[in-house]
Amino acid sequence: MSVHSFIRQAPFTLCVTLLSIASALGVVPAHAQEIQLTAIDIALRPDATMCKRALAANSRLLKDYPQGFALDASHNPHITVLQRYVKTDDLNKVYEVARQVVVKEQPTHWKLLAFKYYYGKGEKTGLAGIVVKPSPDLLRLQKELIDALTPYSVPEGTSAAFITTPDEPNINRFTIEFVSSYIEKASGDKFNPHVTTGIGTIAYLDKLLAEPFKPFAFKPAEVCIYQLGDNGTARKKLKSLSN
Predict the structure, then answer these.
(1) Which residue range is the domain that position 26 belongs to?
(2) Hey, which of 50, 64, 211, 236 would disulfide with 227, CB 3.0 to 4.6 Å?
(3) Among 145, 143, 44, residue whose Cα is nearest residue 99
(4) pLDDT in tens, 54-111
(5) What is the pTM (predicted TM-score) of this model?
(6) Which of 223, 234, 206, 227 lies closest to 103, judged by CA?
(7) Whether residue 47 is found in the same domain as residue 10
(8) Contact at 8 Å (CB) between 139 and 191?
(9) In 3-state terms, what secondary structure has residue 85?
């Protein structure tokens, strides 16, 4: 090899050597590391009026299907406005752009209307909830949040982006895929705002839907960003956007 050829290749040779040393030491270059994602839910935390109704419905569901989940501090009653995968390193940026939308819209001043039960049917069980009328305010809030988070959204994620526990170690495929397709399946005229109340058997849920439902008004108490768990549960409060 000529001296000139060696000089031209020296930077490349040095780079390969450094990478080999880093690999041997177990050090992975930053650009090669797997990007950590968080599955987030921007949601309205309802007031005591809605929470009381949701907890009562949850209690009934648990009697029918004890293997379901209880609404509690780690399964927060909430009304999802937007679900997204974002880079964990971008969370502070996401908090700020979302907060700006919330400050502009002031959702805690709104009055919302709950008007029926519903459930999403699985093979033997269904995920039940209380449906909220999709008011112009809610639709506008959702659209503004979608626009604000678009620069930070990641198209797909895995179960690693969610909260898991020893009692609930798995995230089902539907939940993982739903976050990816949330805008396509649950925004605009497909928006179905609701408070999830738990899991029940299909037979029980069919009887529940046949019961009369008296509509009631309530207000959002707070706007929060949660990290999602299985079945779209709001498992961990990451940030309040109302303060």
Answers:
(1) 1-33
(2) 236
(3) 145
(4) 999 999 999 999 999 999 988 999 999 999 999 999 999 999 999 999 999 999 999 9
(5) 0.83
(6) 223
(7) no
(8) yes
(9) strand
